[in-house]
Amino acid sequence: MHFPVISSNSPKMPPHDRVEFQSPMKEDDASSTATSVLSDFYSVNSLKAQFSQLDVSFDQPLPNFLDVKVVFAGSKADALDYFRPMFLGVSSKHIHNKFKLLSEFLDFIDRPEYQGLKPKEMQSRFSLDSTKHLNVNGSSGCCIAAAYDFLRVLGPYGHIFGETKTWDQGFELSPNFEHVGAFVKFQNPNDSRDAGVILFDEYDHDVLCLLNGQTIKANGTSWKLDSNGDLIIKSILHSNNQYTVSHIPIKHLNNPDDTVGKPYLFGNSKLQQYHDFFIRRKHEALAKLDFCKRELTLRLGTTKDVPQVKFKFDDIVSDTFSIDVTDYSNEDIRLFFQVEFYKALGVSEAQFWLDIKRYIMNEEKIKKFFCFPDDISNISS
């Protein structure tokens, strides 16, 4: 089925099971608090003023937003029929691979021309390009790689959104774009009320479709698209009855690597925050390095209730550590040394353990460049 396009010249989260076809609801109290920041919040002058207050460990560029130029001409039902299979195809193949970003940075700082530079300057000079994390089988990188992979299948309809947290459990926040995904806009040529947005997020089980002015609620989270289809306000209600509020402007984010990718990788040097590095394929497998506990966690799946095993850093780099499955008598442990585990993560057995040992041997260097609770002063030295 072919659909024409409408040209327009007008301007982590855990996954949720969503109720998609609710009628528009009254905005809740948390969203009402957040509506003081509307579409003009994301104007260039406003962003310059807000980002000047941020204290990050490198010069963070302003987000470069572009207006949506191509809109899908069809009903909500047509749009879901057309785009949902594309989501499932990309989402099932994407590997969220923060190991890859860490390897690229270690390769970068090992180059002779960068020796002697301060950590801050090295971070500033490091260039992240998530388009290089696409391959014929999908994508292996952070959420930005997944967004670019969505754009490959969405064609001219696809755009990248940036999500910024604006309110967190009683505190208003300076803008910090911390997540991206893809979106398309749709408009039924025969019904002006049948118009809205579909979000494509690597962390979710399905697309999220919102009509203009609609609110969807599920599992303590609500998403509201304003009546013009320009801004989504996302509110999460926590167990302490406090809210986290995020804004998603429905504009194309043209520089996601600089705006989201580098802050995601390095964090804020002035905050005591926890960093872990991991590789994950949804529903199938996960490997996570915890530099605070100094341990590697392997999981057959991605939730905490699945089979898992932990190895201490010192044991992994010892002469007695083996990756030969025949050296393990425990059947539960043997599962993590089978070829299927590495295949799920898109890496060979040899490369996986070579990378793990490299990260452990560079532990001191990694803690110098990234923000850890007990070592946050190093970044400015």
Distance separating the two termini: 59 Å
Unreliable sequence segments: 1-41, 47-58, 373-381
Strand content: 25-35%
Tally of helical runs: 12
Average pLDDT over all residues: 82
Largest sheet: 11 strands, mixed
Structural class, from helix and strand content?
alpha+beta
**Number of structurally distinct domains:** 2
Helix content: 25-40%
Give an overview of the whole structure.
With 381 residues, the chain is of the alpha+beta class. 28% of the residues lie in helices and 26% in strands. It has helices at 29-34, 44-51, 76-93, 98-109, 119-125, 143-154, 256-266, 313-316, 331-334, 339-344, 349-361, 363-369; strands at 5-7, 65-66, 70-73, 95-97, 134-135, 138-141, 159-168, 171-172, 177-187, 195-200, 208-211, 215-218, 221-225, 231-237, 243-249, 252-253, 276-281, 285-290, 295-299, 308-312. Strands 1, 3, 7, 8, 9, 10, 11, 12, 13, 14 and 15 form an 11-stranded mixed beta sheet that branches. A 7-stranded mixed beta sheet has the order 5-6-4-17-18-19-20. The chain has a two-stranded antiparallel sheet with strand order 2-16. It is globular. The N and C termini lie far apart (59 Å). Mean pLDDT is 82; it is low at 1-41, 47-58 and 373-381.
What's the layout of helices and strands?
Blueprint: E1 5-7, H1 29-34, H2 44-51, E2 65-66, E3 70-73, H3 76-93, E4 95-97, H4 98-109, H5 119-125, E5 134-135, E6 138-141, H6 143-154, E7 159-168, E8 171-172, E9 177-187, E10 195-200, E11 208-211, E12 215-218, E13 221-225, E14 231-237, E15 243-249, E16 252-253, H7 256-266, E17 276-281, E18 285-290, E19 295-299, E20 308-312, H8 313-316, H9 331-334, H10 339-344, H11 349-361, H12 363-369
Parallel strand pairs: 3-9, 4-6
Antiparallel strand pairs: 1-3, 2-16, 4-17, 5-6, 7-8, 7-9, 7-15, 9-10, 10-11, 12-13, 13-14, 14-15, 17-18, 18-19, 19-20
